[in-house]
Structure formats: structure tokens, C-alpha cells
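Sequence and fold
=================
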Amino acid sequence: MGFSMGLNLVLLLAMVATNILSLYHLSSTLQSPKPPTQQPVPDHLLHQLNTIRATISHLTRHQPTSITPSPTTTKPSIPQDLLLYSHLSSIASACHNHPDLLHKYMTYTPYSLCPLDSDLLAESLILRGCHPLPRRRCFSKTPPKPPSSLPHNPFPSSFLDSNVIWNKYPSCKSFSCLAKQSPGLGFDLNTEISKFMTYKTELDLPIPQLLQVAKSANSVIRLGIDIGGATGTFAARMKQYNVTVVTTTMNFNMPNNEVVAMRGLVPLHVPLQQRLPVFDGVVDLVRCAHAVNRWIPLTMMEFLFYDVDRVLRGGGYLWFDHFFSRRMDLSKVFGPLIGKLGYKKVKWAVGNKTDSSGLKNEEVYLTALLQKPVSK
């Protein structure tokens, strides 16, 4: 009995001593300086990569099983074609924030007609950062009577209703309806034909004046991009001066892309947050239309400006056409942000935004023409 108690006491003392030594070793290890470890990849980039990997892992891990779901379960299963595509290529990391829209977009019958609401779903996802979207194996419906040739005049007397599938759009079923319901948005040709040609205030920059500025600087404008160009009126007018302009535009429940194509121009269905699908230093002019304004998150706007710089050649022009913001923000935020580009100010005009929103928020318009230095 005494021997066993003595043995237990020795074991207890040994265990206490071992713990004390372990604690001493741990504290000395923590106190001893370690050389800093290098991280060749930035933390924010690692986070983005891990988010993308986690999204793909989530999609492949949650495949439908043979277990019968309970009647109360409402969460849809992952569509098979979405799972299949996730093995072929990655999708935008923002897609996992909107699984219901993504699942609905990818729920279709392969090798048949795409669902009628595909375009609206696609644009809803794109505007939420889910871009590029997964590809699909279905056939898109097209208008039954496409035009036989491209128009020579990008300002026709009217747009043909037969060139649009109106079932996609809930509010209007004709161009005459759009012209009345949405004045000023590019569907009233009587209004559009005078745009970019007249000078009324300092905020206007008529195309003849723009081309004269370039000529006086011994520069040339041949190729351009119109960011947020709606129905392509700027590109249409530039076409008449033998300048090729592609238009980035979203539909927003209106057939903007269809109208650009009907004019014999090229629409790019891309959001503002996407990298411009153009090679470096190949365009002479980038116009930022009304879509580029103070509602864009500042970080996204900064990336947009530097992507514009990427595609502009040295000596090319960046045109902010009626950029609106609060007056204070223009002087303290957006002006300095634009100034970081280091471009030459050819024109810089500021005027009050006189509609109800502008008066309420003390907003102003900025029209600026900037020239990229040749040395860049």
C-alpha cells in the first residue's frame, strides 16, 4: 500500500515537473525573435484566390445526393451543368453571394432553347459582380427577320420593332413606347440626331471641336471606346467622321445593345467593373458617359480609370462627358483621383446640375478632355 502511494506521488511530481518544463520551453520560444517570413503574394490577393477556390469547392462538394429532401426544404439543388462547368473553368468569386439567381440561370434543358428570362437573369448577375458568367449549352432565340445588311446611315428615320424580341422587356413592346416612356435615353431619333453637334454651355464638347483640338495638337482620332454609351449615339455620330467607336452598354430592361447593333455598330455587353476587352495602348479616345458618375464605388472607379489608361495610346484623349458629383466631392475626391493620372487638361468645365436631384444634393457636372502624355 505504502509502495503504491509512493509510486503515485513520484509520478505526480514527474508530471508536474514535465508541465513546468513545457511551459518554460513554450514561453522561451515565444520570446525568442524569429526572422520575418516573406509573403511573395499579397494578402488581399491570397484572400481572393481562396474565395474563388472555396466557391468551386462548395459547388463540387454539394452535389445532389440520393437522400430524399424533407417537404420543408426549399433550397434548390446545384444544377448539373453548373457543377460540370465548375470543373472546366472558374467563375467569378462574387457569384457565390447570389446562389439563387445563379442556380436559376443555370437551370435549363441542355441542347434546347434557352429560357426566355435568360438575358434578364444574366444582366442581374453581371451587375452584381458575377461576371464572367458560366457558359451554357442552350440555343439563344433571335429575331425572326434580321436586317439583310448594315445601314449606311446610323440615324435612320425609325428603328424596326421586328429586330427586337420584346418578350424580354416587361414595360414596352415597341420603340415608340420607349421614346415616350423613357425620353432622353436614346430611343427618340428626333432628339438623338442633334446630340454631340451643338454648343450651348461650357459643358458641351461638339465633335467638330473635339476633332479640331486633336488636329491642332498634331494628333489623330481613329479608334475609340464609349463607356456606358446607351444606344450608341456617340459612336453613330463618330462613324460619320470615319472614326470607329465601340460602345459598352447594359440593357437595364431596354434594348440598348440591340439598337447599337441595328445602327451597324459594335455593342460590348460588359459592366463597368470588368476589365476592358481591348489590348494595351491601341485606342485614341475613351469617352466616359453618364454611367460613370459619383454612384460608382471609389475603388472600382480608380481601377476603371487606370484600365482606361492601359488601353489609351500615348497622346490619346480621355473625355469625361457630364460626370456628376457633389461639388465638395469633386474638389476633394474625384478631382484629385483624376489628377493622379497625370494627364494634360485640354478642357475642364464645371457647371451646376439643375434638376431636382442635383439641387437637393448640391451636385455639379464636370466635362473634361484630358490628353495622355506620350511618355507614358
In short: The beta strands are 223-227, 244-248, 267-268, 283-288, 312-326, 344-352, 363-371. The chain has 13 helices and seven strands. The chain has a mean pLDDT of 83.
